[in-house]
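Curious: can you check?
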Amino acid sequence: LCNEIIEEELAETSEVRWEELPKPREIYEFLEGYVVGQEPAKKALSVAVYNHYKRVQAGENGGGAGREDAIELAKSNILLLGPTGSGKTLLAQTLARMLNVPFAIADATALTEAGYVGEDVENILLKLIQAADYDVKKAETGI
């Protein structure tokens, strides 16, 4: 009985509900409640995150390559730059909390090529999978 309850809980929490994806305005307003200042960053992140998860959703629903009526959504990466304490990590953590996706932080200065002393790139992915309670499907949607 315990195992069944745990499996049900994991099944319910590991699903990302794409139909509930908030609009950029809603994402911005949520960030407003947690982050003071950084207006341009909040606006840019709100739109970029919305577009990113819409692109992921389109891929999952078969809206990708091969369909003639498919809308092409360009992939865009986000690079947050700024001095220490300016709110970069807080913005990302707040977005992860709002979207209910796993979040992992990695220090790239410690990364080295495989076979050398230092952290390997795979360790970043391991941290994300650990943050997703070892649910690879959920980790694929993480930040």
Remarks:
- DSSP finds six helices and no strands in the chain.
- The CA atoms of residues 4 and 16 lie 21 Å apart.
